[in-house]
């Protein structure tokens, strides 16, 4: 679409380069697996990987290459720029891309779960890159003024969380996440035309009672422990009453941090607090129910995550939770403002790839520049054409 637009051409070049590197990784992994086991049948590969007592180096390397290919295809940092810039395409195309195509990496990981599980290096790559991307992209999402750009950063963050879930062995959770994300993103993009009306409604002055309630609002950093108790208690109830398999500790922590935000702005109003608490408890039950359904109905099993990777993921999401809380309750803090200045600039991570595809290498010793460089380079390229 729109081949005459310089920004669209830059996005296409980035996508072409990243996709070709990912395909080379997949071809190399396929060659290694075929050389070792003389088959590329997915069921046979899963069976052979599950029966290995000692994982050969070639299989370890193949799993790591598959993990790298999935991360490249899923727009993980620092090769995420193409996903943000394909917003040049029509909104319906963006909906198809974010709700379907970019999710394919997750399905590859789930389909090859027995192979990925046998390779600690592949799991480490997925967890470290995925959780870091989820945190950094999640913070950037909070700074985006454009609704479509915000959704693009959100997709980048969600794909990072999906990769981390697969690296931790939480394949049932990853499948549930992919299905829910596809439905949400398709609806979000196709209804983005309502963003102006919703923004106008949010700018309406609040009532006097609302202003007083907002003034009395108390810090809510302690809501995560409360939701963790709800998740653990609900999990224990499901296990003893319905004999449903339990979820891992890191999955409970991720769920608690995500749902705790529902309780942040309801301390000063008892009715609102009870309503949000009920919604949070219901969300936990829905999550546990869908988790059980996927485990039993689709045969997607989860495995015990490696302890160091679980600790890393828990720390990342704790930092994300505290940063979000600080943005809402300590917005005037110098450290918070400095953090979100970097977040709004995308941490300057896309600049090297932008300069590479525009064939304008930076001068030696040049300092990092703002992401508006992409637009300036596109304008210069358009004038040259």
Automatic annotation (TrEMBL):
<feature type="transmembrane region" description="Helical">
    <location>
        <begin position="93"/>
        <end position="110"/>
    </location>
</feature>
<protein>
    <submittedName>
        <fullName>NADH dehydrogenase subunit L</fullName>
    </submittedName>
</protein>
<feature type="transmembrane region" description="Helical">
    <location>
        <begin position="309"/>
        <end position="328"/>
    </location>
</feature>
<dbReference type="InterPro" id="IPR001750">
    <property type="entry name" value="ND/Mrp_TM"/>
</dbReference>
<feature type="transmembrane region" description="Helical">
    <location>
        <begin position="16"/>
        <end position="34"/>
    </location>
</feature>
<feature type="transmembrane region" description="Helical">
    <location>
        <begin position="54"/>
        <end position="72"/>
    </location>
</feature>
<keyword id="KW-0472">Membrane</keyword>
<feature type="transmembrane region" description="Helical">
    <location>
        <begin position="237"/>
        <end position="264"/>
    </location>
</feature>
<dbReference type="GO" id="GO:0008137">
    <property type="term" value="F:NADH dehydrogenase (ubiquinone) activity"/>
</dbReference>
<dbReference type="InterPro" id="IPR003945">
    <property type="entry name" value="NU5C-like"/>
</dbReference>
<keyword id="KW-0812">Transmembrane</keyword>
<dbReference type="Pfam" id="PF00361">
    <property type="entry name" value="Proton_antipo_M"/>
</dbReference>
<feature type="transmembrane region" description="Helical">
    <location>
        <begin position="276"/>
        <end position="303"/>
    </location>
</feature>
<feature type="compositionally biased region" description="Basic residues">
    <location>
        <begin position="361"/>
        <end position="377"/>
    </location>
</feature>
<dbReference type="GO" id="GO:0016020">
    <property type="term" value="C:membrane"/>
</dbReference>
<dbReference type="GO" id="GO:0015990">
    <property type="term" value="P:electron transport coupled proton transport"/>
</dbReference>
<dbReference type="GO" id="GO:0003954">
    <property type="term" value="F:NADH dehydrogenase activity"/>
</dbReference>
<feature type="region of interest" description="Disordered">
    <location>
        <begin position="361"/>
        <end position="385"/>
    </location>
</feature>
<feature type="transmembrane region" description="Helical">
    <location>
        <begin position="122"/>
        <end position="140"/>
    </location>
</feature>
<dbReference type="GO" id="GO:0042773">
    <property type="term" value="P:ATP synthesis coupled electron transport"/>
</dbReference>
<feature type="domain" description="NADH:quinone oxidoreductase/Mrp antiporter transmembrane">
    <location>
        <begin position="2"/>
        <end position="199"/>
    </location>
</feature>
<feature type="transmembrane region" description="Helical">
    <location>
        <begin position="161"/>
        <end position="184"/>
    </location>
</feature>
<keyword id="KW-1133">Transmembrane helix</keyword>
């Amino acid at each position: 679409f729109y081949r005459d637009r310089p920004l669209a051409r830059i996005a296409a070049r980035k996508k072409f380069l990243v996709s070709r590197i990912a395909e080379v990784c997949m071809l190399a992994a396929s060659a290694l697996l075929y050389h070792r086991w003389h088959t590329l049948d997915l069921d046979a590969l899963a069976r052979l990987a599950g029966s290995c007592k000692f994982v050969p180096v070639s299989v370890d390397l193949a799993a790591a290459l598959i993990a790298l290919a999935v991360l490249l295809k899923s727009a993980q940092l620092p090769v995420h720029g193409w996903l943000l810039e394909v917003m040049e395409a029509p909104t319906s195309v963006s909906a198809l891309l974010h709700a379907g195509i970019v999710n394919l990496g997750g399905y590859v990981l789930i389909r090859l779960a027995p192979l990925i599980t046998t390779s600690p290096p592949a799991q480490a790559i997925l967890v470290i890159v995925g959780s870091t991307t989820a945190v950094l992209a999640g913070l950037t999402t909070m700074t985006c003024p454009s609704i479509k750009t915000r959704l693009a950063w959100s997709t980048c963050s969600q794909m990072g969380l999906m990769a981390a879930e697969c690296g931790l062995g939480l394949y049932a959770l990853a499948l549930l996440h992919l299905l829910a994300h596809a439905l949400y993103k398709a609806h979000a993009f196709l209804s983005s035309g309502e963003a102006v009306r919703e923004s106008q409604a949010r700018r309406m002055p609040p009532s006097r009672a609302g202003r007083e309630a907002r003034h009395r609002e108390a810090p809510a950093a302690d809501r995560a422990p409360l939701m963790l108790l709800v998740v653990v208690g609900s999990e224990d109830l499901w296990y003893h009453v319905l004999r449903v398999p339990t979820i891992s500790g890191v999955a409970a922590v991720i769920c608690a941090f995500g749902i705790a935000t529902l309780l942040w702005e309801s301390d000063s109003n008892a009715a609102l607090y009870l309503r949000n608490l009920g919604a949070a408890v219901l969300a936990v039950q829905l999550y546990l129910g869908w988790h059980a359904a996927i485990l039993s109905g689709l045969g997607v099993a989860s495995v015990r995550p490696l302890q160091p990777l679980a600790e890393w993921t828990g720390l990342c999401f704790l930092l994300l939770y505290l940063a979000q809380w600080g943005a809402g309750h300590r917005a005037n803090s110098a450290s918070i403002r400095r953090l979100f200045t970097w977040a709004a600039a995308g941490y300057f991570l896309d600049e090297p790839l932008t300069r590479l595809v525009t064939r304008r290498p930076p001068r030696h010793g040049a300092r990092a520049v703002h992401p508006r460089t992409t637009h300036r380079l596109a304008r210069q390229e358009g004038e040259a054409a």
